[in-house]
Amino acid sequence: NILTGVLGYASLLKHRLRDQEETKRFIDIIETSSLRAADLVRQLLAFSRGTQPEDLQVVYPNRVIRETTRLLESSLGKDLQLEVDLNQGLPPIAANSTQVQQAVLNLCLNARDAMPNGGKITISSAAVALGGKASSQYKDLAAEPGQYVRIRVADDGIGISQEDLDKIFDPFFTTKEVGKGSGLGLAMVYGIVQNSRGYVYVDSAEGNGTVFDLFFRVAEDKDRQQSLRRLTPGLAGEETVLLVDDEPMVRDLGNEILRSYGYQVVLACDGLEALEIYESRGADIDLVVLDLLMPKLGGKDTLAGLRKLNPAAKVIICSGYGARENGLQKLMASGVNLVHKPFKPEELVSAVRQVLDGETGTKEKNETTS
User: Fold this and answer.
1) HSE toward the beta carbon, residue 264, CA cutoff 13 A
2) Geometric angle at alpha carbon 152, from 124 and 203, rounded to 5°
3) Model pLDDT for residues 258-310, shown as the tens digit of each residue
4) Cα–Cα distance between 286 and 116 in angstroms, integer?
């Protein structure tokens, strides 16, 4: 609150005194220093609070990485290349999604600062086994044996000296010049991973770049159940849902929402793929969630194809159109439920549970298109 006041009034003063250059310069210094102080306080609070066991969630790592890369687009600069190599089908991890994102973000910004003349940052993910005889490369971690997801951030920057490698995770240790870094970025990364019962591995040498490997343990059944207990009661389930949407972000979101409530999810990127999947696996699919507007084969035609394969198929249509637009009223009259985009997680899962339980009705959030 104190820093909010300092920043706010400094900005007001700068606006009112914009014709007095010397005074404006002093206020700029106050404003910049306050921003740095605010950032330091945020980092200190995050570092000191840590993550309690009850704060751990079931997190899908690839989605967190994709969201992080979108945040990075405006921060890396034109001389830096960002490469993303994600192993598909990774199991969820037990962690805090916001903190995982913060850890990856900190590592990427650290890599950026290690390449003042440009270079490449690579973010990758993979499933690995640690502990025992699982991986000799990581034997120094003394990890608890089990399955983990590895998130790797690698750069071809200036590297880290052997002398500094032992100190990089110490709070307030930094090799950057005064005012350029707080020394908390890597300490926060270490704390975040440790609080998730994970491990950090670093491989670096001066002039040869740096590789940071973050290991998060795969979520166990007890983690999933704990996560489910926090959700709206009565909406969880174990049925299989075929989710069809041509937009990757919406598809990933729906996948995470439904899986977090316990459902099994099969993904399709268009109507043709959906019909192929349903034809071969229809007996295992309890419900289809279908986007209305898609290339190749739209939602209405896909619905018609599903009805040919199984007249009793349970289907939900997702659309940004209102119920009176684009022929949706006729679809709803035929027994198809409607969920409007954009939807909240509870709205989607509530509609899914409704249809699976044989209830009727629609979810109409708004009348705007998206």
Assistant:
1) 6
2) 140
3) 988 889 999 999 999 999 999 999 999 999 999 888 888 888 889 889 989 99
4) 54
Q: Considering only CA atoms, which of 268, 352, 270, 274 is closest in space to residue 308?
A: 274
325 backbone dihedrals φ, ψ, rounded to 5°: -105, 155
* CA dist 134 → 41, 57, 61, 150, 201 (Å): 40, 26, 22, 14, 15
- Give residues with Cβ within 8 angstroms of 173, minimum separation 6: 164, 167, 183, 186, 187
Residue type present at position 6:
V
Q: How many CB atoms lie within 10 A of CB 83?
A: 11
Are the beta carbons of 184 and 47 closer than 8 angstroms?
A: yes
Cα distance between residue 361 and residue 153, in whole Å: 47
Cα 223–Cα 68–Cα 231 angle in degrees, nearest 5: 30
CB atoms within 10 A of CB 118: 14
* Per-residue b or e along 128-143, where b marks 16 or more CB atoms closer than 10 Å to that residue's CB: bebbeebeeebeebeb
Place of tokens 């995982």: 100
